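Lab notebook: predicted structure, single chain.

Context: the supervisor wants predicted structures on file for every construct in the current expression panel, including those that have not yet been purified. This is the next one on the list. No modifications to the sequence; it matches the entry in the shared construct table.
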Amino acid sequence: MSRVYNFSAGPGALPEEVLREAADEMLDYQGCGMSVMEMSHRSKVFEKILGEAEQDLKDLMQMPDNYRILFMQGGAHLQFAAVPMNLMKNRVADYIITGQWAKKAFKEAQIYGKANAIASSEDQTFSYIPDCSDLPVSPDADYVYICENNTIYGTKFHTLPDTKGKILVSDISSCFLSEPVDVTKYGLLYGGVQKNVGPAGMAIVIIREDLITEDTLPYTPTYLKYKIHADADSLYNTPNCYGIYMCGKVFKWLKKQGGLEVMKARNEEKAAVLYDFLDNSRLFKGTVRKEDRSLMNVPFVTGDKELDAKFVKEAESAGLVNLKGHRTVGGMRASLYNAMPLEGVKALTDFMKKFEEEN
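Prediction complete. Output recorded below exactly as produced.
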C-alpha cells in the first residue's frame, strides 16, 4: 500500500525521510550492533544522541544560554500539573482560556492554588482569540498561562498577551517548530511532541534558568520537579530514549530544510491554499475568525452532519485520512504540520472541489 496523506492532529505525520532513516537504523544504530530501543540510556552512544538533539533544538530556536531544555515523559497533560507545582510560589496564577487544553490546564491549576480565568473565548465556541492587550492580570500572579495554538478549534495567538511583567507560560504543543519564536518572551514553553516533532509519549519543556528552583509546592512528586531533570540533564530516570532519538532526527531534518524561517514560509503557503479554497467555497466553510486562524490546524464544516460524515469517508477512500474533527466539535479538521507536503494540501482541495460539485 502506498503512503496516504495523513491530516491527523496528533500523533501527526512525520517526515518520510526521517521514518526511512529510522527504519534503516532499526536493527543496528550506526554500527553499534543494536537498536536505539534497546540501548542503555547511560551509554556513550545514547548520551551523544541526547546531546545532539538538545543542541540542534537550541540552534533551531536560537535559544539564549539562560534557558534549559528538559525531555520529560507524560506528554502535555502532565505539564498541566507540573507548571503550577513548580511555579505557583504565591499560589496564584492567571489563565487565558482559548480552548479545551487551556481549560484543562486551568482546572488542574485550581487544585494547587487560586487560578483565575482572566480572558476567554468560550462564548463563541473558542472560534477567536480574545483581546489580550489590557488584561486584568492579578498583582500577585506567579505567571500568565496560554495555549498558543488551539489544535481542536484552529486558533492561534499571533500577538502574545501583555502579561504586565508577569512570567508568560505557553503550551506550544501544536505549533512547536512551525515558525521562529522569540524564546526570551517566555518564562516557560512546553509541548507534547506528538503533533509536529516526534512520536507520542513525552513533552519538551524549555524553561528560563532562574525559574528552576528547589522551591516547589510541598507535595510535588520528585519526578515533576524541573530541578531534578535539569540537574540530571534529562537522565534522572530512564527517559523516552526512542522518542528523543526520533525528535533529534526531526531537528536535523528541519535544519537541513533551512530552519524555522523556511518552515514558516512553507506553512503559510500550505495554509493559504486551504483557506483560499474555504473562503470561496459554496459548500465548505472555515469556523475561525480570519485574523486568529492557525497555520497548523484548519477546522471546517459543510453545515450538514451527514454530509460531513460522507466527506470524511470518501476522503479516506481517496487516501486523505484523519480528517474527522475532534469529537467535541464535529465537522472536519486538516492538520498541516511541517511534514505535510504542499502536494497533500492541493490533493485535499482538489478532492473538496470535486465533492462540492457532486453534492
